[in-house]
């Protein structure tokens, strides 16, 4: 009996030692569990870092800096050039403007301003597209050049009368076209914010805040503003 008991104890001890040596014992299991928990965490950290690197590469801050500088140049330089031409070559400018009807001049200036405003919205929607950025630069430059030629500013009708004399209505028509586009943008912005703030989320009116629906509403408001300028008697008032 003693030998059997000793052999049993020895066998159990040997089996325990064997489990420890073979790596299937409880100590080995506990020592491996922290590694098994940290491995997915390290993999997730690497994945997050890689995604951050990808987003940083896609951001391209240098290109945005170049675009902003180009936009500032498109805002400032054409206006100064147009204003200089209006002051120094007034008679030549009047000869060119006199070919058009006031409504035609207002429509041309409104078109330039309208395209510029739409390009701003499209640059936000299509942030990675350079096509709309180029269109924005060109349209802003055109709008600012027209504004400079026609001396657009607060109380512009005084300046246009001093420079253009009895032909001031031609320059005023261009200024009214630009103002109509800007006024339409302000009305749309107020309407858009009012829908976001005042209307419930489950209301059908929230459809108007989606990108293409919002652009459609904006286009309707802009056309109404143009119609008011062209046929509302404003061209004969200033």
From TrEMBL:
Amino acid composition bias (Polar residues), ranges on this chain: 28-38
Comp. bias intervals (Low complexity): 1-10
Keywords: Membrane, Transmembrane, Transmembrane helix
Region: Disordered, residue numbers: 1-44
Transmembrane segments: 62-81, 105-127, 134-158, 178-199, 211-235
Stated name of the protein: The export of O-antigen and teichoic acid related membrane protein
Record organism: Bifidobacterium psychraerophilum
Lineage: Bacteria, Bacillati, Actinomycetota, Actinomycetes, Bifidobacteriales
């Amino acid at each position: 009996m003693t030998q059997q008991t000793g052999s049993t104890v020895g066998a159990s001890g040997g089996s325990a030692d064997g489990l420890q040596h073979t790596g299937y014992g409880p100590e080995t299991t506990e020592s491996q569990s922290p590694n098994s928990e940290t491995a997915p965490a390290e993999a997730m950290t690497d994945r997050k870092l890689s995604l951050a690197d990808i987003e940083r590469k896609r951001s391209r801050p240098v290109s945005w800096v170049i675009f902003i500088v180009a936009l500032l140049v498109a805002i400032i330089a054409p206006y100064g050039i147009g204003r200089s031409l209006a002051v120094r070559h007034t008679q030549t400018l009047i000869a060119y403007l006199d070919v058009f009807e006031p409504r035609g001049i207002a429509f041309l200036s409104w078109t330039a301003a309208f395209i510029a405003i739409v390009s701003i919205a499209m640059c936000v929607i299509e942030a990675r597209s350079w096509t709309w950025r180029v269109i924005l630069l060109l349209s802003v430059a055109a709008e600012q050049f027209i504004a400079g030629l026609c001396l657009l500013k607060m109380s512009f009708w005084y300046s246009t009368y001093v420079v253009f004399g009895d032909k001031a209505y031609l320059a005023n028509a261009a200024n009214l076209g630009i103002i109509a586009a800007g006024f339409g943008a302000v009305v749309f912005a107020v309407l858009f914010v009012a829908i976001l703030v005042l209307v419930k989320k489950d209301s059908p009116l929230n459809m108007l805040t989606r990108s293409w629906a919002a652009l459609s509403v904006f286009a309707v408001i802009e056309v109404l503003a143009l119609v008011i300028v062209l046929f509302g008697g404003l061209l004969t008032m200033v």
